[in-house]
Amino acid sequence: MAVTIDYAALLAPDLPAPAPGWQGRPPYNFIGGHVDAASMPVEDMIAATAAVLRRDGATLSTYGLESGPLGYQPLREFVAAKLGKRSGMSISADQVLITSGSIQALDLVNGMFCCPGDTVLVEQFTYAGALSRLRGLGVTPIGIPLDESGMRADLLAAKLAELKAQAIQPKFIYVIPTVQNPDGSIMPEARRAELLEVSAEYGVPIFEDECYADLLWTGERPPAIAAMDRRQQVIHCGSFSKTIAPALRVGYIVAEPNLVAQMAACKEDGGTGALEQMMLSEYCRGHFDDHVAKVTVLLKEKLDVMIEALEENFGTTAEFTPPPGGIFLWVTFPDVVDATKLATAAAARGVTINPGPDWSADAAPARSRIRLCFGNPTADAIREGVKVLADVCHEEFGIPVRSANVERNRLTG
User: Which end of the chain is more exposed for a tag (fewer CB within 10 A), N or C?
Assistant: First the structure.
């Protein structure tokens, strides 16, 4: 007699909860690193795919596209040239490893450096995916406070001195210096130099994440920390997910050649999607700068719409600093607001937001903060979604406070 297999009893412990059934995106989606659907250069991508397949399509017959384990050679050459032009880095294609998005870059660094019980220093507010991955490995992320110039170098040095006295050697310092995620700031060159000095003094490498560095309203930025590095103490990563398309899942990591070779050995996926690499290389060679210029204009327009909607619906109860680039806005509400509860209540009304505690090394400082992404929704959806969010926030926490006249005008205006 056949026995029904009890898969639940066979699964490894501590797995994440099963993914819910896909019900489509909510009407007002302010989460995730999505880009504007209208900005997708579909026809140019079709042409690039056809051209590169005619030229190099036969190389799909081998793992590595006849380019070796680091990724498609023309794409690595483009990345090296782009980083030289935009980030001030002087590197060769052999220092570039193509990854399946920047997420794989994070996983490679974490997997190579970290063991359960280790310590990593991060910005107090930082990428939620980085925090969850570190914690999932049993690593302790310690948050260093930020100011308007990014991670405080003096507090970083003080924390490193404290840890040294306890015989704790952190594995690396994870920073997002250009369009910091989630607060949107850009670290000035002087602060970057300070971080390099602190890193060298304590022998702790810097892991620099610059996934949003190309999305700047003015295009002006300091050199990457890696560009200022003279001691090979910086690992750098980036992505095409925000500039071109997130679903392509193509990123890159840059480090000194021996470390790149070690990362390639740890990259056990058989290689990042080959057709994606080939198409990106062909497309970006002739279109990247123009595409990014158009996308940043569109993103700035959407940011302006979001700011206008927040000011109209929340008044002074929503505090924020307009970012100089990127796709998100970091908003602070009065202390009475619990961002996690707000996120749950808003989701029930079709508005998804990132609650601040998910983006903080310590939950308490971000209790009343939220991250709002404006890259994907239309201008109308931004206006309508912020309006619904304000209604939910008022119903749950009494914020914003509305007089009868203001409420009447808002509902009829």
Answer: N
In angstroms, rounded to a whole number, what is the distance separating the alpha carbons of residues 290 and 92?
24
Q: Read off the pTM.
A: 0.93
Phi, psi of 162 (to 5 degrees): -65, -45
Contacts of residue 144, Cβ cutoff 8 Å, sequence gap at least 6? 121, 122, 123, 124, 151, 152, 155, 156, 159
Report the alpha-carbon distance of residue 60 to residue 140 in Å, rounded: 41
Residue 321, classed as helix, strand or coil, is coil
| Cβ-proximal residues to 353 (8 Å cutoff; 6+ apart), any chain | 30, 31, 339, 342, 343, 346, 370, 371, 372, 389
pLDDT digits 0-9 by tens, 92-148:
999 999 999 999 999 999 999 999 999 999 999 999 999 999 999 999 999 999 999
Per-residue CA distances from 302 to 28, 196, 379, 384, 388 (Å): 14, 35, 6, 13, 18
Of 391, 355, 393, nearest to 30 by C-alpha is 355
Using DSSP, state whether 268 is helix, strand or coil.
coil
Q: How far is CA 291 from the centre of its chain?
A: 20
| Mean of pLDDT over the chain | 94
**Across 193-233, where does the E strand assignment appear?**
206-209
Q: Enumerate the β-bridge partners of residue 151.
A: 146
Point out which residues pair with 351 in neighbouring strands: 28
